[in-house]
């Protein structure tokens, strides 16, 4: 399966990219960077650092720096640290970005791999909305869009109403869901059922000293946040669960519904069922233990 991950690395993004690199059924052909957990220049730098660390020879295309109609963005430093990787802050600039902006790169790849390309969006949906605006056939050209975002049947994590990726660009998300490609939404309804604990990271580091050790090191900051804010003993495999949904749909229970995103007011970012819109598949339940096992098995195979 040919895959592009649209990403804002981010600790859980790093985990998802590592999983995709290790999964034999995934042909990871590129990364597109968006603002979110970090500023977009940090996102693309971190993505290039990760592809180098994983020994991948794939392009990284930099995309949106802010949400639609916004002039600035405040990263989630309290969750992911000042540079996106927790307490690991010395992240070198390696290589350079693809000459195309992310939206153009997505459109081009969708045309080249028409009917084959899966796009997994694990940050705000600004690049996806931009690709849809740029090419009216983009949604038809890709095989599937898998989105880590939303809290359709459960509370949000940024506000009581909204999940972070949708909240950071509610307008873009609403545009995508207004005329979506074939889409699976992997939101907080399922990702909080995939807790990865300190002992899991330690075991991963022992099996995969290079990459697993890196993930263990950057996770400490993230795990502290989950403990202090949510009282949880682990972190959700948010973005990795979305990548796993690209290839392991039977692990998920899904319902079909249209979606609307609230774009203003106190409930901005709320993702709600809307029977008047085209349907997407929303994950309602997951084999959480199975996702944790699969993630560990695959990433442990890395050096």
Which strands sit side by side, in order, in the main sheet?
Answer: 3-2-1-4-5-6-12-9
Q: What is the percentage of strand-forming residues?
A: 15-25%
The span between the termini is: 23 Å
| Helix residue percentage | 40-55%
Helix tally equals: 13
> Low-confidence segments, ≥5 residues, pLDDT <50?
none
| Backbone CA Rg | 17 Å
CATH architecture: Alpha-Beta Complex
Silhouette: globular
Secondary-structure-based class equals alpha/beta
**CATH superfamily placement:** Ribonucleoside hydrolase-like
Named CATH topology:
Inosine-uridine Nucleoside N-ribohydrolase, Chain A
Name of the CATH class: Alpha Beta
Largest sheet: 8 strands, mixed
Question: Strand tally, please?
Answer: 12
Outline:
By secondary structure, the protein is of the alpha/beta class. Helices cover 41% and strands 18% of the residues. It has a single domain (2-299), classed as Inosine-uridine Nucleoside N-ribohydrolase, Chain A (Alpha-Beta Complex).
């Amino acid at each position: 399966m040919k895959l592009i991950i649209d990403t804002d690395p981010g600790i859980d993004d790093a985990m998802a990219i590592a999983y995709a690199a290790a999964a034999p059924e995934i042909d990871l052909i590129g990364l597109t960077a968006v603002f979110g957990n970090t500023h977009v220049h940090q996102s693309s730098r971190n993505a290039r650092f990760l592809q180098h660390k994983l020994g991948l020879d794939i392009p990284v295309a930099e995309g949106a720096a802010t949400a639609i109609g916004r002039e600035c963005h405040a990263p989630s430093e309290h969750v992911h640290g000042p540079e996106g990787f927790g307490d690991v802050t010395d992240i070198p600039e390696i290589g350079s970005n693809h000459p195309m902006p992310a939206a153009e790169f997505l459109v081009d790849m969708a045309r080249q791999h028409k009917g084959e390309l899966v796009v997994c969006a694990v940050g705000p949906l600004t690049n996806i909305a931009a690709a849809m605006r740029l090419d009216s056939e983009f949604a038809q050209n890709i095989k599937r869009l898998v989105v880590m975002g939303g809290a359709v049947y459960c509370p949000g994590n940024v506000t009581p109403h909204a999940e972070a990726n949708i909240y950071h660009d509610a307008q873009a998300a609403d545009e995508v869901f207004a005329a979506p490609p074939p889409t699976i939404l992997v939101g907080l309804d399922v990702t909080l059922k995939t807790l990865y604990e300190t002992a899991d990271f330690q075991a991963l580091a022992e099996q995969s000293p290079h990459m697993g050790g890196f993930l263990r090191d950057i996770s400490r900051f993230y795990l502290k946040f989950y403990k202090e804010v949510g009282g949880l003993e682990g972190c959700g495999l948010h973005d990795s669960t979305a990548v796993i949904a690209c290839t392991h749909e039977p692990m998920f229970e899904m319902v079909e519904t249209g979606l609307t995103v609230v774009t203003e007011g106190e409930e901005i970012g709320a993702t709600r069922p809307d029977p008047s819109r085209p349907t997407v598949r929303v994950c309602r339940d997951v084999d959480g233990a199975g996702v944790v096992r699969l993630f560990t098995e695959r990433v442990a195979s890395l050096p």
